[in-house]
Q: What sequence folds into this?
């Protein structure tokens, strides 16, 4: 057992090229599973092949959960982490879809695992200058994507069968995007008290995420200005001193 844990520790936490390739393979698998879930939700296809893929993904998730659990000293706390609970729910929905079809939409919670690993984020920053330069934008886009996809699934589950305007996942996503951008065409509305409450949540939380993304893209938290003493090139927008050497710096601003 000790040899197995040591091997897992090298793969999940190591800095060797093999370990980095392994973690990138995990990221690729996460992307593939999310793509599969999105396509399955939109197309609503059921076949023996789809069932087999569900079981394969479930086995992969169980193996990944088990490996990560073995590396934790406090395994009970690990089991109570939101991402761990989300993965457990995903596994249940994959293994018992015929019996818990209403939980199928929770498979999208797998998206919460993307780019949340410290080691993966570190690897991406170190290897790819593009990610290092645009990390905040990438995280903002990811958060917005997860919100839209999860909330669209909730809208579908809450309204399907009782709202003739929402018959599939695409209808639910259309309503979600139109609502959080405040476009509000009015051709699709949610019915009932739960529908109105869900609309309020989408407008408040979703619009805040949307504004955050726009702010991150067009008004980055740091600006480029080279410190003449230490050479630091990135500073907070309202900085008056270099945070590295303390020199007074003169950053041009557009005013308050």
A:
């Amino acid at each position: 057992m000790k040899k197995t844990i040591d091997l897992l520790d090298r793969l999940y936490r190591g800095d060797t090229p093999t370990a980095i390739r392994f973690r990138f393979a995990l990221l690729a698998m996460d992307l593939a599973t999310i793509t599969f879930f999105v396509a399955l939700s939109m197309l609503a296809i059921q076949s023996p092949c789809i069932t087999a893929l569900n079981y394969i993904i479930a086995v992969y998730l169980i193996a990944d959960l088990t490996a990560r659990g073995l590396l934790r000293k406090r395994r009970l706390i690990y089991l109570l982490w939101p991402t761990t609970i989300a993965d457990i729910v995903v596994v249940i929905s994959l293994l018992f879809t015929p019996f818990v079809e209403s939980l199928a939409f929770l498979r999208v919670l797998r998206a919460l695992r993307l780019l949340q690993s410290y080691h993966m984020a570190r690897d991406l920053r170190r290897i790819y200058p593009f990610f290092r330069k645009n990390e905040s934008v990438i995280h903002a886009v990811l958060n917005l994507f997860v919100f839209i996809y999860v909330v669209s699934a909730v809208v579908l589950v809450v309204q399907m069968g009782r709202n003739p305007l929402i018959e599939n996942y695409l209808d639910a996503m259309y309503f979600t995007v139109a609502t959080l951008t405040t476009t509000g065409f009015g051709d699709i509305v949610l019915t009932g008290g739960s529908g109105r409450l869900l609309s309020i949540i989408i407008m408040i939380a979703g619009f805040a995420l949307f504004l955050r993304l726009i702010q991150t893209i067009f008004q980055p938290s740091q600006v480029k200005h080279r410190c003449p003493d230490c050479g630091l090139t990135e500073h907070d927008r309202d900085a008056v001193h270099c945070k590295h050497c303390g020199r007074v710096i003169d950053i041009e601003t557009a005013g308050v």
The chain has a mean pLDDT of 78.
